[in-house]
Amino acid sequence: MHISSFFLELRSAYQAELDDLTFDSEGRHVLRKRLADKRQELGFLLQLMDLNPELVAVVLHQAFHFTAPAVMDHFLTHNDDELLAWDSVQQALTIEPWALPIVDQILQEPMGEWFMTVAAALEYMHTKPLSAANRAPEAEKDPEDAHGESARPQVQEDGGARIEDDDDQDARTREEAGNDWLAEQGFDRKD
To answer: CA–CA distance from 51 to each of 10, 102, 118, 132, 161 (Å)?
Structure first.
């Protein structure tokens, strides 16, 4: 199955949003509670649905059962300007009864049908593992050699001294800047 770049990017953002909602700062699983809170904020979230659909789509997490995977697989090959109509996508799934009022509210919005197709696609992708062919665009960012090791060295040795590559240096700089900012806000430094 081929997935368009539009859906690959959204998939990653959707998964990150679900990951952020899953655990609290103490490591407790709080996804159900946080999703309930998000569903209560639907009126506000609808303002974001065309700019950041992944932030809104989480309110429909586990709302769909996919009855025609071939239709969904085909749908994922499309970019955002060539998506199938909601009527076509809706025929490939069933909606949980608890989600029907949410769906009705979303469909009243000008971008509601477009958003529903995107939300269904995000949830469908969430239920399927990403194939190796679809990971290829991600691999291009950090090419691997035949042994599965990064083609560019992460850390080089120089006479016993370790030299970090640019990405590691950037990460350290960002972390230090974050620590400085937290210290300015009155928090204790991590280092």
So the answer is: 11, 19, 12, 29, 47
pLDDT digits (tens, 9 = 90+) for 73-87: 999 999 888 888 999
Using CA atoms, how far apart are residues 109 and 32, in angstroms rounded to an integer? 26
Summarize pLDDT for 117-141 with one digit per residue, the tens: 999 999 999 988 765 445 444 444 4
Q: Are 4 and 79 in contact (CB under 8 A)?
A: yes
Query: From CA 45, how far away is CA 37, in angstroms rounded?
Result: 11
And the tokens for 108? 């009243």
Q: For the whole model, what pTM was predicted?
A: 0.66
| Domains in the chain: boundaries | 5-137, 146-184
Contacts of 72 (CB under 8 A, 6+ apart): 66, 89, 92, 93, 120, 121, 124
Radius of gyration from C-alpha coordinates of the chain: 21
Q: In the chain, which ranges are continuous DSSP H helix?
A: 5-22, 31-40, 42-45, 53-57, 69-75, 86-90, 100-107, 112-126, 132-141, 166-184
Q: How far apart are the C-alpha atoms of 144 and 153, rounded to whole Å?
A: 11
The angle, 0 to 180 degrees and rounded to 10, between the axes of the packed helices 100-107 and 112-126 is: 140
State the Cα angle at 34 between 13 and 19, rounded to 5°.
30
